[in-house]
């Protein structure tokens, strides 16, 4: 007889509440359902009650981990609505801030992975050294999380020569952290054995369910908004879009680990080639129009739609976050797996339910559940 | 109180920034271990409940249920401004918080998110313990966006900060004689828009980040400015310093206006209602005409 196993919603090992309902037979997962909504805050509605500027702070709070990239995507979309040209220097600075965010986000993911795999030593080293990024962000922007660095028309704080020195210094430390993470993933690495072959998402399935970001790239698809639809200064910077073919949790880990080196190199280049000039301009007046914007968040493509009626508040804001796109991939990956692997699989997409929960509730009480109980 | 402190973390309707910072507290530099504290995975094992987020309709019952299961002494700590006031999500349709409307809360840690240092010191305080804080990472860096500070001399009471505030954290309350500007930092997202937009640089975000309190109604700082009364009807309507500031700005820009300043001042001391009276409109028009004439002559 198949039984139903619940994970969550309140499990502190998962950073956020969500309920996974797994249908299990002989310790094998037959099917899965996700129930969301514990973090739903009505943000899309709230967007329409604040001015374009005030909304920056709200966009940022959709998710506290990739907060910066939300403000960037939002600001870029509003820049189209207000016809605001962004200074070159601001574009480069945006790349620096956003890659720092990708770094702390990816490192945090490895921290969580180590925690999940009970690799205490690795967990401590990753989290301790990740603090370098957090300290740097706090020093550059004035806050460790929710740093509100992007604004409509540019960025809010400059990177002076003195600060650039500090950035370079930190990058050196981060290179050694990334090397260490790579060593956890090599043939004798402590992660390798536990995650190789687990939670495979084939290339075909990944495309079918519309996965994005490292989840998609781990299944061998070369997709990255930074390259496919360049924004900020990404068109002028040199970087590789990392892919791995196997589609398992291991492949996704490798993608993230290798991406940290790319991020470090992007920051390096941006600092070297930082153009002189203003860091922001005064935004124009909102025109009556609709616009979309997309960027590559640490978890994949982030998408904004904004409709303006010409007033100082948007009429409609719609956000599609990467975790939402990847949720379907979780279900695919769980099917056929052993129960004890469920958590690491769920975490492998780096789910961010604060993001997703703005959007929807997937009801668990669907036909499928009843079907199986028969 | 038993020696071992076990914390169960409950989150509903926040951004997860606070949750990341709690996770971060496990890093040795934040000394959670020094306090003999562990983070546990079920409410039954815990004697401290840490709440993040403003709680939405779906999280409410779960919160109640978790609270019931917490062991004595059942200490409840609300972490982050969402858990104090729902902050920027206040007014969102699924929101039913803040948490203290659902379960009793003993301590509040303001911030968005609070620094890990603030979270750890809050826990230490709750346990009546002191932490060794000698290392410099306990200080926030220059430019940190922490607790606000008013410069009472500079503030002209114009209310620009309240208008640009991203989280409706600033109240402007006009009393009989004075205007109160009240920054509810427990409702604040620390965006610093107020600091950016203040025309006189009277409001600043400081490096101060320890804001622990057991009464969230006290999480505010205030400033008062004198209101002037309408020279005709006597109603209080505008901050005195704001008028003086405006006059100063005008004379700085167009110095030929200087000799009209008394007339301008007189006109500005009439409240908007009285300004609409016929004879006052006539006077105002006359004044404006004079002003534009001198400006024109001056330009030539
Ligand atoms: S207080 Fe700020 S950081 Fe904490 S959950 Fe709320 S929005 Fe996020
Ligand atoms: S920093 Fe100022 S403007 Fe921003 S939320 Fe706080 S009080 Fe409002």
Summary?
Chain A is α+β, with helices and mostly antiparallel strands and 374 residues long. Helices cover 47% and strands 13% of the residues of chain A.
Q: How many distinct beta strands of chain B? A: 11
CATH topology of the largest domain in chain B: Rossmann fold
Q: Class of chain A, according to the CATH hierarchy?
A: Mainly Alpha
Mean pLDDT, all residues of chain B: 90
Tell me the total number of β-strands of chain A.
Answer: 8
Report the uncertain regions of chain A: 354-374
Strand content of chain B: 15-25%
Strands ordered across the widest β-sheet of chain A: 1-2-3
Report the helical percentage of chain B. Answer: 25-40%
Query: What is the mean predicted local confidence, pLDDT of chain A?
Result: 87
Approximate shape of chain B = elongated
Discrete helix count of chain B: 10
Tell me the quaternary state. heterodimer
Indicate the topology.
The complex is a heterodimer of chains A (374) and B (300).
Chain A lengths: L2 E5 L11 E7 L2 E8 L7 H5 L6 H7 L6 H15 L6 H29 L3 H22 L8 E2 L2 E2 L5 H24 L7 H4 L7 H6 L4 H5 L7 H4 L20 H24 L15 E10 L2 E10 L6 E5 L1 H13 L7 H7 L4 H4 L10 H7 L1
Antiparallel strand pairs in A: 1-2, 2-3, 4-5, 6-7, 7-8
Helix pairs in contact in A: 2-3, 3-4, 4-5, 4-11, 4-13, 5-6, 6-11
Chain B lengths: L4 E7 L5 H8 L12 E3 L8 E5 L6 H11 L5 E5 L1 H5 L21 E3 L6 H11 L21 E3 L9 H5 L5 E5 L3 E6 L9 H5 L5 E3 L15 E9 L6 E4 H14 L7 H8 L3 H4 L2 H22 L1
Parallel strand pairs in B: 1-2, 1-3, 3-4, 4-5
Antiparallel strand pairs in B: 6-9, 7-8, 8-10, 10-11
The structure holds iron/sulfur cluster (2 copies).
One iron/sulfur cluster sits at the interface of chains B and A.
